Amino acid sequence: MVRPPTARSAVPGVGRLGLLEPTASADLQALGWVDQDSVELLWSLSRAANPDLALRALGRLREALGDGWSELDQLLRDEKSLRGRLFGLIGASSAFADHLVAEPQSWKLLRASALPSRQQLIDDMLELVEATPETGPNAAALLFRAGMTGPSTVARLRRRYRDHLMLLAAVDLAATVENEPVLPYQTVGHQLSDLADAALTAALAVAVATVFPDEPCPVRIAVLAMGKCGARELNYVSDVDVVFVAEPANVQGSRLASEMMRIGSVAYFDVDAALRPEGKRGELVRTLDSHIAYYQRWAKTWEFQALLKARPMTGDIELGEQYQAALLPMVWTASERDDFVVDLQAMRRRVEEMVPPELRERELKLGRGSLRDVEFAVQLLQLVHGRADETLRVTGTVDALTALAVGGYVGRDDAANLTASYEFLRLLEHRLQLQRLKRTHTLPPASDEEALRWLARAAHMRPDGRHDALGVLNAEIKRNAHRVRRLHAKLFYRPLLESVARFDKDALRLSPDAAVRQLAALGYQSPRNALGHLTALTGGASRKGRIQALLLPTLLEWLGETPDPDAGLLAYRRVAEALDEQTWFLRELRDEGAVAQRLMITLGSSAYLSELLVKAPEVIRMFADGPNGPLLVAADPDDVARGILSSSARYSDPKRAVAASRSLRRHELARIASADILGMLDVREVCRALSSVWAAVLNAALQSAITASEAETGEPAPATFAVIGMGRLGGHELSYGSDADVLFVCDPKDGVDETKAVRWANGIAESVTKLLGAPSTDPPLQVDAGLRPEGRNGPLVRTLAAYDAYYAQWAQPWEVQALLRAHQVAGDDDLGVRFLHLIDKVRYPEGGVSSAAVREIRRIKARIDSERLPRGADPATHTKLGRGGLADVEWTVQLIQLQHAHDTPTLHNTSTLDTLEAIGAAELLSEEDVELLRESWLIATKARNALVLVRNKATDQLPGPGPQLSAVAHAAGWKNDDAGEFLDHYLRVTRRGRAVVERVFGA
């Protein structure tokens, strides 16, 4: 809501104020807020989370105050701070609105100049029950005898506690209405915890007077806060976890603890002692020695984790401090337990599994990307590193993150991001609980926009120019949940990696079995193999081994975030061994963080790249950043092509020449694929680069074959020779698994017999095909001339004149269609261009193709759809022949070219995407249809490339849900870890593309 420029602006209507109730005008009239002097009040009211709720509460409060309303009315006009607190409170909390109406004079508490301190809260609560310090044998204990007991005392405690809670909530919510400072999250948590301490101190005082009405308290009893209260990060509505230590631990001590819990639970909040030894089955109170014995012998890992947050809160503070001093040292050795990691992981899984699947995305406390993810990751790091670093022995989550960052256990950016997300999620949790003062951690469903809009306003969400407050809230929820889950996975395992890799005798070491378990926790499917790789990499006392030991914790962390860390670690070992004598390798990894991280990402993401980088490790140097950006994308395709040609030209032997060009191709494929995996090249750039490399290798093989022929015969070549790229090669849209579709054309030189020229050209074509198709461990180089006239039954090479005669008389519709993508790629450029001019009249015929040809093309496409799809393939996810796949889009584009290229010169183009743009510019299809076909082609090409990168073999079928689909989604550049979303996106895009194909191609 926009605030008016001055207080003297016109009185706004109820609609502008965000008031939706039919009675709003009458309610404002009853308050007397309809004149120009009430403008500031009205605009402040409009900024409440729910202005209608606030207005109704004001009406009820006016009736409850009677004549006292005029005082409040005047102060609201005069005091912006009071106005912000009251409107913020009653606009966000129906429970506190009810409390104000029930206790109408309590509004005066909202004028407090500052929040009370812990001691002030304790004094106020004890004064309420007329408590005095206990005397006698327990004089040193912080126990009190209350002068008041019974139900009326509990009611007084409840009201006083609610008053203090109300003041804090009002100060916390004031920033939603007026430009008041936002109360920091930690301040809220500390204040709530201090109030809980004061409340239970009063409850303990009443319990002492109730259980021992006529005698001094014979029991020393300490109450320790656990969980959120122990960490001083309590919620507005939460149970308070406690543990009791008593001397002696007798029936009287149990009665005292039970009575305190009963009073506290009735008056304030649930008091829960389930974190005591043996849980709810165990004794309510134990002596200090009994606690020590239990934790030494029986305690489980999660119980030591719970002790991280133990804090003496009331009762015999000295005894509570003795409890801490005795048990906390056990906490810092818990990470040595055999099942430490397994127990923690199992507990986290159990917590998450408790949440119904339909609520996991809405559950702030226990779901994915929730508060528990942050707390578990932080507590694990504390437990692992706190043994040696006492600065980590803090109770609060935010304080612990700060200490971990200062100590270098967590990156400063990661700590800052995790803290911000944690505080954001806690803010939402607080606002949800304040609405009705109910214990809840679940976001409203997406369908309840009213509830979500209220939450957005209560949580200080403001429109950002693109979204309203609700849109901002939804975006922030998704962003923070994803960030928490990602950082949780990263931080949860990092200390384990460090322990595996270090071999310094003074460092903390894990047993081999523990290391195997922890590597399994990192996501390694074969942890014993992984441990073997680590041992091999760090073994011995060499300098290389020491550098590897320093590097591996970070390298393994990055590998752990990839789809296949096992394969990535094996590939890293192979690369490291291949470069054992190269001093630059480890130096680059040590000194260039970008190189190391990019290398781990590629090795853990792509089997295709893992093989290439072992054979072309020099590409790793290109992972660095140059003055103009990453070196991986700095290469010019023309320079690359010239380099391949000049390298092969040094050799007279065709096999050696092709071997040289293969070597450079291997280097280029590794560079292109690395840049692709790392998101440095888009799919069009990848396809163009691959096409350029293929054309250069073809050219190198052709030139070496011609040179060898001339050397062998001692005569110059009898004909010029050109290679025409067809299909995706001709369109400069090759993918990693594509063959090279070509036509071979020759033209006899003057005075040379045509038969001799063709025979020679056939030999050259066969030589090129054989040289490139020779067995190799590199990605294959298959040359396919199946699109030549008459298909595989026709001659391998024809003269220019023979092509002209054939196409003029015998060209079939499918051959005409194939020529649409013909482009000169290798050999004699002049001959290639002459061939293209020759076929222009065939592929772009005057008047367009006949209706009979169109019917034939549709018939062939239908037959391909029904016959060519592999047995068992899913047509919805086959990237080439499936619904909305590459063939669908390309055949549709080519049909439009055949029908319209004769009168639309911009359609004379071999690239599918470029032709689509020309189709849109010529308005042959709507912009929407063009975009749908374009998106379908791009997603299918991305997926097809990703399949090769992941599986290291040509395939067109997307896998079903599972690890391999996750790897494909990652390689295709999908931005989150949900492979199911990637698959849904693929199906949605291709389904829309298919709808256009059916309407346009089948018309």
TrEMBL record:
Extract the GO molecular function terms from the UniProt entry: [glutamate-ammonia-ligase] adenylyltransferase activity; [glutamine synthetase]-adenylyl-L-tyrosine phosphorylase activity; ATP binding; magnesium ion binding
Where in this protein does the record put region Adenylyl removase? 1-496
* GO term, biological process aspect, one: regulation of glutamine family amino acid metabolic process
Q: Which residues form the Glutamate-ammonia ligase adenylyltransferase repeated domain?
A: 89-323, 597-837
| InterPro entries linked to this entry | GlnE, GlnE_rpt_dom, NT_sf, PII_UdlTrfase/GS_AdlTrfase
Give the record's GO CC terms: cytosol
> Has the keyword RNA-binding been applied to this entry?
no
Start and end residues of each PII-uridylyltransferase/Glutamine-synthetase adenylyltransferase domain: 346-492, 860-1000
Q: Where is the signal peptide?
A: none
Q: Kindly list the cofactors needed.
A: Mg(2+)
Any idea which UniProt keywords this protein has? ATP-binding, Magnesium, Multifunctional enzyme, Nucleotide-binding, Nucleotidyltransferase, Transferase
> Which EC numbers does the record give?
2.7.7.89, 2.7.7.42
Pfam families cross-referenced by the UniProt entry: GlnD_UR_UTase, GlnE
Region listing for Adenylyl transferase, in residue ranges: 504-1003
Catalyzed chemical reaction(s): [glutamine synthetase]-L-tyrosine + ATP = [glutamine synthetase]-O(4)-(5'-adenylyl)-L-tyrosine + diphosphate; [glutamine synthetase]-O(4)-(5'-adenylyl)-L-tyrosine + phosphate = [glutamine synthetase]-L-tyrosine + ADP
The reply on keyword Cytoplasm is no
Task: Please give the family membership noted in the entry.
Answer: Belongs to the GlnE family.
Function in brief: Involved in the regulation of glutamine synthetase GlnA, a key enzyme in the process to assimilate ammonia. When cellular nitrogen levels are high, the C-terminal adenylyl transferase (AT) inactivates GlnA by covalent transfer of an adenylyl group from ATP to specific tyrosine residue of GlnA, thus reducing its activity. Conversely, when nitrogen levels are low, the N-terminal adenylyl removase (AR) activates GlnA by removing the adenylyl group by phosphorolysis, increasing its activity.
* The protein's name in its UniProt record: Bifunctional glutamine synthetase adenylyltransferase/adenylyl-removing enzyme
Source organism per entry reads: Antrihabitans cavernicola
What high-level taxonomic lineage is stated for the organism? Bacteria, Bacillati, Actinomycetota, Actinomycetes, Mycobacteriales
